[in-house]
Amino acid sequence: MTTITNNGQSIDGQPVRNATPAAAAGPEWVAEPTAYDAILLAGFGGPEGQDDVIPFLRNVTRGRGIPEERLEEVAHHYRHFGGVSPINEHNRELKAALEAELARREIDLPVLWGNRNWDPYLTDAVREADAKGFTKLIAIATSAYSSYSSCRQYREDFAMALDDTELADRIQIDKVRQFFDHPGFVQPFIDGVRDALLKARAEIDGLDLATEIQVLFSTHSIPSTDAAKSGPKSRGFDGDGAYAAQHRAVAEVVMAAAEAALELDSSVSVPWQLVFQSRSGPPSMPWLEPDINDAIHALKGGPTKAVVIVPLGFVSDHMEVMWDLDNEALESAGEEGFWAVRTPTPGIDPTYVTGLVDLVLERRDGVPAEDRPHLTDLGPWYDVCRPGCCENVRLGFKPAVSGLVP
C-alpha cells in the first residue's frame, strides 16, 4: 500500500498512488494493457429537491468559508428549478448510454457511478466495487479540461474515497486522459455550431457571417491563480495556463470544421471569442475574463446582429448552462436586440458516448500515444498527470491518484 504524507509525497517510493501496475511508475501514456474490472463514472453531483439545496452547496464550498447568505444567493438558481439540478439525471442517462454501448460492442465492463458532492457519493461507488470483488477501476470524470476543479480535485476525491472507506490497500484507480480534444467530445460542438450558423443565415435576411455574427465559446471561469497553475510547467503555457489554451485550441478546431461544413469561401472567417461564466469569487480576486454577459453587451453598437452561444466547457445541460446561459446570457442578448441561440452540450450524443468508451479501451489495450485520436496539437493529453499539475494555490497539494506526486 502506498502511504502519502500531508504534503502529498509518497513515502514508499511509488510515484503514483493506488495505480495499476502499468501506470504505477508514472508514464505519460500507458502502453501496457490493463485488465480492468469496472468503469467508475465520476460526477459533480447536484440536489434533487428543495431540502437538498443548502446541504449540497455546503458540500461544494466546504473549507472555503463561504457565508450562508452567499449560499442563499446561489440557492436561488436551484430553487428556480424546484431545487432539482439536472446533473444527476444526466449522469443516470450517461451511465445507461455507456452500458448500452459497451453491450453493443460486447465489452464486459460494469459501470459504477459516484459523485463528489451528492448522493451517490464516490465512497458509495468504491464500497460497491469492493462488495463485487472489483479491484481495478478505470475512472471517467465528467469534465474534459485541465484545471484544479476539473481534474485534480476529482483525483483528490478518489484518494479521499479510498481512505475514508479504508479500501486503499485493495482497490486501484486509474483515470482516462483529459478528453478536451478527443473527436467524440468535439464533434457534437462542431455539429451544434454548424447548425446554429445555418439557422442564423436562414432566419436573418442578408446576414454577413464574416461581420454580423459572433460565436461565443463559454466555459466556467476559474481564479486566475488556479488557471496559471493548470497543466504541467514543462508545457510553457501563458499566464492563463493549460485551461484557457485547451479551450482556445478546441474552439479553433470547431470553427474551422463548421466553416468547412458550410462551404464558406476561404476568405470568410466567422468571428468568435472565448468567454467565461459562473464566477463565484470575491471582487478582489481576479478570475478569467471576459464574462459572457459583458462580452455580449460589448458588441452593442457594432455590426453584430446575432450571437451563437457554445457551452464548450460543459459535458451536459446542468445548472450553469440552464441558468447562466439559457437565462442570463440569452437575456443579455435580448437586451441588445441580438438574434441568439445556444448550441447543445454533448449529453448522450452517440458520438460522445462512443468516444468515452474508446478512451477506456485505450487504457485497457495499452494503445500507444501515436495511435490515439486528438484534434489539437496539445493532445493526446497525459494518462498520468505530471508532477505539480493543477495545483490549488490556496489549499496546496493533497493526496491524489492517477498522477505523479505531489
UniProtKB/TrEMBL annotation:
Region called Disordered, residue ranges: 1-25
Q: Which residues bind Fe(2+)?
A: 220, 320
Q: Which InterPro entries match?
A: Ferrochelatase, Ferrochelatase_C, Ferrochelatase_N
User: Which CDD domains does this entry report, sorted A to Z?
Assistant: Ferrochelatase_C, Ferrochelatase_N
Q: Where in the cell is it found?
A: Cytoplasm
Q: Does the keyword Translocase apply?
A: no
**Locations of Polar residues compositional bias?**
1-12
Q: Which domain of life is it from?
A: Bacteria
Is Metal-binding given among the entry's keywords? yes
Q: Which reaction does it catalyse?
A: Fe-coproporphyrin III + 2 H(+) = coproporphyrin III + Fe(2+)
EC class of this enzyme?
Answer: lyase
- In which residues is Fe-coproporphyrin III bound? 85, 154
Q: What pathway does the UniProt record associate with this protein?
A: Porphyrin-containing compound metabolism; protoheme biosynthesis
The protein's UniProt keywords, in alphabetical order, are: Cytoplasm, Heme biosynthesis, Iron, Lyase, Metal-binding, Porphyrin biosynthesis
- EC number(s)? 4.99.1.9
Pfam families given for it?
Ferrochelatase (PF00762)
Q: What family does the entry list?
A: Belongs to the ferrochelatase family.
Concerning PANTHER family, the annotation shows: FERROCHELATASE, FERROCHELATASE, MITOCHONDRIAL
Q: NCBIfam families, from UniProt? A: PRK00035.2-1 (NF000689)
Q: What task does this protein carry out?
A: Involved in coproporphyrin-dependent heme b biosynthesis. Catalyzes the insertion of ferrous iron into coproporphyrin III to form Fe-coproporphyrin III.
Name the UniProt record assigns to this protein:
Coproporphyrin III ferrochelatase
Organism (species) = Frondihabitans cladoniiphilus
Its gene is: cpfC
